[in-house]
Amino acid sequence: DIDIEEAHWLAEQKITHASMDGILEQGIGTVMQQVATWAGDRPVHVSYDIDAIDAQFAPGTGIQNAGGLTYREAEYIARKLGYLNPVAVDMVEVNPTRDVEGKTVRLAQELTMKLLGGEWNSYQDYLRSDAL
User: Fold this and answer.
1) Which of 28, 51, 54, 102 shows its CA 20 to 30 Å from the CA of 19?
2) Per-residue pLDDT tens digits for 59-87
């Protein structure tokens, strides 16, 4: 989710990037194949902006995004990036004070685990809880 200023800066710096338009036009699978090609076998720093995800799934952020990434797309991106060579990962734009029932924080935990090559999901969390 790129605003006008970011788009200008990316163009000025000649930074290769993917956008929501690219995802809509080409599909998430094709875009992630392009990302893997761009990265090659080089070390990768992943900065995952939670506000790129639709507010239905990530309400706890500074700027809620209606029409952002779906849960499925967000999870797929994290999983695929985790297969690359991540040497640094940060999850940004999470604001727990604006969250609704911990949705965004739990999603950020899950995505971070997948970015690091691990697994986490709410079902596993439920099995470890006192809810049983």
Assistant:
1) 102
2) 999 989 999 999 999 999 999 999 998 99
